[in-house]
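4.2 Preliminary Data

To establish feasibility before requesting continued support, the project team ran the inverse folding procedure on a target of 228 residues. The structure was first converted into the token representation described in Section 3, and no sequence information of any kind was made available to the design step. The complete token record follows.
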């Protein structure tokens, strides 16, 4: 990934379409790349990412002013590292409204950050329109629409526009990796535990495709830096 400290925002306007899975894979990918990402889990009170990354996660309630201050102050108070923000659906619109009001992109750029927004476009056309609204709000940040192949998406990839796909992963494997202490990073490093061979093979294929997709956005991130 990028050498420059980056704020990654993972979001959608629909529930249960792979948003937190994408955020989780992204954090593990950054760690494998020898980065030191800090996670901001706005999924209060459950905190699904906090369970996956104890010790490097702050849980915030973005529906409260204190939570909003905590999110932005955490980032601006400790520049120089990557941040991954997992936004819950109910707070997505509120987050980007606050983002615009605070001129957060300007402040983050001054602090040395670049910003990348991953938006999972669901199968309804209204989700695609919502993603386009978010893209306008966060410009000139790098905006990457995402399709979850298992769920379906209204997004139609174009050759002149960067997008990535979340490949299909069957429910049995999903159940295994959703276990509280399962680490995708450790799995990639060879710790497969007692996972059955057919499940291990499916997960390896999934992670290879995901890691390749994340690696492939590097040229776009470099171009975004040059334009900044």
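Position-by-position output of the design step:
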């Amino acid at each position: 990934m990028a050498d420059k400290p980056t704020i990654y925002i993972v979001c959608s306007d629909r529930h249960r379409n792979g948003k937190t899975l994408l955020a989780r894979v992204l954090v593990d990918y950054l760690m494998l790349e020898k980065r030191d990402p800090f996670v901001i889990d706005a999924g209060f009170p459950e905190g699904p990412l906090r369970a996956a990354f104890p010790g490097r996660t702050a849980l915030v309630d973005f529906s409260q002013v204190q939570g909003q201050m905590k999110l932005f102050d955490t980032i601006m108070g400790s520049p120089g590292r990557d941040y991954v923000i997992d936004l819950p659906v109910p707070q997505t619109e509120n987050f980007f409204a606050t983002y615009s009001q605070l001129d957060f992109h300007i402040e983050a750029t001054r602090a040395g950050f670049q910003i990348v927004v991953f938006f999972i476009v669901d199968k309804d056309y209204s989700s695609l329109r919502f993603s386009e609204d978010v893209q306008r709000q966060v410009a000139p940040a790098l905006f990457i629409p995402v399709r979850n192949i298992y769920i379906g998406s209204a997004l139609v990839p174009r050759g002149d526009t960067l997008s990535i796909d979340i490949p299909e992963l069957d429910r049995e494997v999903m159940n295994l990796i959703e276990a509280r202490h399962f680490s995708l990073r450790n799995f990639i490093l060879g710790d497969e535990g007692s996972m059955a061979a057919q499940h291990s093979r499916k997960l390896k294929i999934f992670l290879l495709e995901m890691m390749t997709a994340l690696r492939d956005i590097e040229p776009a991130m470099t171009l975004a830096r040059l334009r900044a």
